[in-house]
Amino acid sequence: LACPSCMRKNRVGDYKAIFYDEYEDFIGKSPERDVSSVSDIQDENGQVAVIYADGNNMGNIVMNINSPFEHMYFSRRLDYVTKSSVYRAIHKVMEDKARFEAIALGGDDVFIIVPGDTSLEITNEIINAFDKSFEGLISMSAGVCIAKHSTPIRSMLGVAQAKMKIAKDLVRNKGLREGTVDIDIIQSNINLDLNSKKFSLFPVESSRLARFIEVIKNMKRSSEINRSQLYKLRHAYEKMKKVPYEFQLFYMYQTKRLSNQYSLLTARLFDIKPDKFSGLIENNDLSSKETFISPWNDIILLWDCIGGA
């Protein structure tokens, strides 16, 4: 006989093994199975991420199903596509070093834990694969919460769920046919505020997230991009926020003195020509009092959340 605690651990271990077996069935390779705790998933910065995702437009699809057989087929296809999208995304980003924890995975629901510096790429790959499988009739929105591995998963889940709802609102409000993402980074477990907004440019469409990933990787590769200079730009904007044109003059002076790589790379996020980019972008949100938006805080926050180069 086993004590209740040991029995529970054994059952949880068996349940976890199901996802690892499924991963191997889809990929043909086994993930790293020595994941006994969330700490084993942390990246080089000690961070992990909760990805919480859900399908969009599911109600309309289900309402138009006319028979139990169609419903059965749709349910099985949905389950297959979701699992395939998740497992292939994990393998594509982490390759033979794949390590993850799946808490819930099936239907159109995704609740997984991955290393922090792989989370945005994995999320984007999941959404792209899911959306493509259903040709835009159904898309997927995700909330991502990144924090130190010691952060309670319950807290991270609450943040990820809140961010997913915001991402889904973007789909509804804009009538999008592609998935969306919103993210948050927990920097302290004290006075956690689910309504706080650290990022200026999120939530975003998955296509915009892909640009963020590309731009930050290129910044990391470039010998002309100095991370301390990014902090300097963020600090300068905070000081000159009420006089944005003053910041733009400061930005143009700094980049002329240092390198045009700051404009060449950052301008790609917004589909504008580098010579037309002056450190800020115009705010198209008519309900906002701010004329411009700064991308520098977002770039700094995302820097450690996108690994490699």
Tell me about this structure.
It is a single chain. Helix content is 49%, strand content 15%. The protein is of the alpha+beta class and 309 residues long. Strands 2-3-1-4-5-6 form a 6-stranded mixed sheet. It has a two-stranded antiparallel sheet with strand order 7-8. Strand 4, helix 5 (153-174) and strand 5 (180-185) form a beta-alpha-beta unit. Helix 1 packs across helix 3 (68-94), helix 4 (119-133) packs antiparallel against helix 6 (206-221) and helix 7 packs antiparallel against helix 10. It starts with a helix and ends in a 6-residue tail after the last helix. The relative contact order is 0.11. Residues 1-13 have low confidence and may be disordered.
What spatial order of strands do you see in the largest sheet? Answer: 2-3-1-4-5-6
Total DSSP helices:
10
Give the biggest sheet: 6 strands, mixed
Q: What is the helix fraction of residues, given as a range?
A: 40-55%
Give me the oligomer status: single chain
Between the first and last Cα atoms, what is the distance in angstroms?
52 Å
Low-pLDDT segments, ≥5 res: 1-13
Number of β-strand runs: 8
Mean pLDDT: 89
**Anisotropy-based shape:** globular
Strand/helix succession: HEHHEEHEHEEHHHHEEH
> Roughly how many Å is the radius of gyration?
21 Å
% residues in beta strands? 5-15%
What is the structural class? alpha+beta
